[in-house]
């Protein structure tokens, strides 16, 4: 068979390898402490954590319904690497950083930079972290008091033995996008002020979580509920086991057999009297969980940009090791053009998502202007829907740049593509997020669009010497002058006018 063995692509420190990330941080967050932490973490990711991520992929979770003596246990068995990811996440402050706010308005940028270098090696542990961050955000926004104060401190701790992750149980069989109509789960009030939940959650990810936020319809004394979105409230529940070893109030129906995200358990859950506490006002469930959606959609966008960056880094490295037609791939202009196109997509995605993280940090630090707030609302669905699609295209192209090896399972490359495919589906599909854009345009009487074009104008002004941008400047000026009339008209109309106009 000959003696030739192809050198493999090597994962190097993803922080040191990423000139754009370092340049962005040097400009906005020039703190030695942040740089040295990111550098050390990047080293750990390349030399230690990436192996764990691989172990999560090849040792997927499994469900043990019964113990050897026939007792129902519903035990989700996960790999030791998956458990190590939980401890690492606490130690590295992957959620905590966003709440400690050591770097003020730049804390979210710092946190997301860490997640960005972690994500493709994390064995999808970024999924529970996204939901954990989202749950902490919801609790913070409604007030950190009983019954969720202990949970908040556990979600945001750096101590591995105290750290909790959260689920986000929204989707039911009838409605994942349309949870308002599709949610059948009911909440029966108890004498002590708590509730018992009865229903069936069709998709619940990282189901080994310690707690969850979920939606249900509160029953009145006669057992009746209010239909639609206005009947939904937000509930907090802990996932625990009784002395008999059984999950309290939950049965795990089965684990999903998925295209990707196989490292992580995604289960169907029967809620059979799960004890819960209502944490939103009655009927304000969707509006209250919207804070969680904002956070998880930003995490999703970070994962998308990170997947692109990882495949571009590996493809670039491989191009220095693989020879075809007498020269290295890096010396073939056509191959390099392909990599350059992937690089441009990746840079665009990175800058857009980091800008949204910047806005989130400003809002949370109380320094956001009205324009910032409008931009954050508008750009969150936009960046999620756009990067979700981009990731599939770029990662697919990236696989091709390894030739046949890109299709070979134990290179670890196919998993990147499988995991990218979900990014446009969960946390709101592309069309549902497009409608969310229209929703926020309508609710703000067009002000979010005005903010967007004002922001675009200021960005373009900073690059006024670039002559190829002058058509964009003209277009933005035209949009702003049209919007002026539009916003004035919309402000005088009934709510819903813009939805009809759109
Ligand atoms: C690796 C990293 C990845 C992350 C991990 C992912 C793990 C997987 C987890 C999941 O997939 S969890 C399930 C995620 N599910 C979704 O994202 C649901 C998608 N569907 C939507 O987003 C629908 O648009 C929505 C359910 C919100 C529609 O519900 P409604 O009730 O028909 O909406 P409506 O009546 O327009 O709005 C109700 C309220 O919510 C309004 O507030 P007000 O009553 O105060 O006016 C809206 O303004 C507010 N709202 C809705 N969307 C919002 C929002 N507020 C802020 N931001 C939003 N995006
Ligand atoms: P549907 O809502 O039935 O959508 C089907 C199609 O119709 C989509 O293309 C959608 O874009 C389109 N569509 C729907 N409404 C409109 C409209 N008004 N206009 C135009 N097009 C429309 N959910 C959770 O709650 N928690 C979890 O932890 C979780 N984990 C998941 C893990 C995985 C691996 C996957 C794949 C899903 C997970 N989900 C989870 C579910 C996920 O959030 C939903 O699948 C998603 O929101 C879509 O809902 P649906 O499946 O009901 O699709």
How would you describe what is shown here?
This protein is 51% helix and 14% strand. The chain is of the alpha+beta class and 502 residues long. The strands form three sheets. It has a five-stranded mixed beta barrel. The mean pLDDT is 95. Flavin-adenine dinucleotide is lined by residues 168-171, 175-178, 203-205, 258, 261, 266, 422, 425-426, 429, 431-432, 435.
Helix and strand topology:
Blueprint: H1 19-28, H2 32-58, E1 62-66, E2 72-77, H3 80-91, H4 97-100, H5 107-118, H6 126-142, H7 149-155, E3 166-169, H8 179-182, E4 186-189, E5 195-205, E6 211-218, E7 232-238, E8 250-255, E9 266-278, H9 285-319, E10 323-324, E11 327-328, H10 333-364, H11 370-400, H12 413-421, H13 430-443, H14 447-461, H15 470-492, H16 497-501
Parallel strand pairs: 3-6, 4-6
Antiparallel strand pairs: 1-2, 4-5, 5-9, 6-7, 7-9, 8-9, 10-11
Flavin-adenine dinucleotide (FAD) binds near residues 169, 176, 422, 426 and 435.
Spell out the key features of this protein.
502 residues, Butyryl-CoA Dehydrogenase, subunit A, domain 2, two-stranded antiparallel sheet, 16 helices, binds decanoyl-CoA, binds flavin-adenine dinucleotide
